[in-house]
Amino acid sequence: MFSIGSSHIEHHLLQSSEKSGVVASSYTYSFQFSTTFDHESGAPFEPPSGGPSNDVASAPKPLSPYEKYLTNCASKLKPAECGKQIFSGVFVGNQIISDYCCHSLVNDVGKSCHYDLTRNALQWPAYAKNKTEILKRNDKVWNDCIAVRPILP
């Protein structure tokens, strides 16, 4: 299952359920929409009805140091609209990034975090199949953003 969605910025990934064999990821790069996919079929994932599970195996595992690093990276991008713009620009290719969001990406997130967040998302089949195009768009978003003039006070 791959999930994107939140009203705040977080990054949680590789939470596994031993019972179902599903690897789950909640990847929020300041997104306010929510989409959940079965990572193998790409089909929308519908959680089982009947309330929360009492299955201990489905509890999330603590974040690794790298996952904490990615969480910190994603938390630097504000506001939420900027995450939507950058995500669409990189993963969909149908978004022009506003000057404000470019400044946040360049000055607050930085190149290493931007690239690491993208590379991490590429581990999921829904994105891996378009890896070359996504990496080109990732470069384009970054290069377009560093060319934006500073916002004057």
TrEMBL record:
Keywords: Signal. The keyword Signal applies. It holds the Pfam family Prolamin_like. Residues 72-145 form the Prolamin-like domain. Transmembrane segments: none annotated. Residues 41-60 are annotated as: Disordered. The keyword ATP-binding does not apply. This is Putative Prolamin-like domain-containing protein.
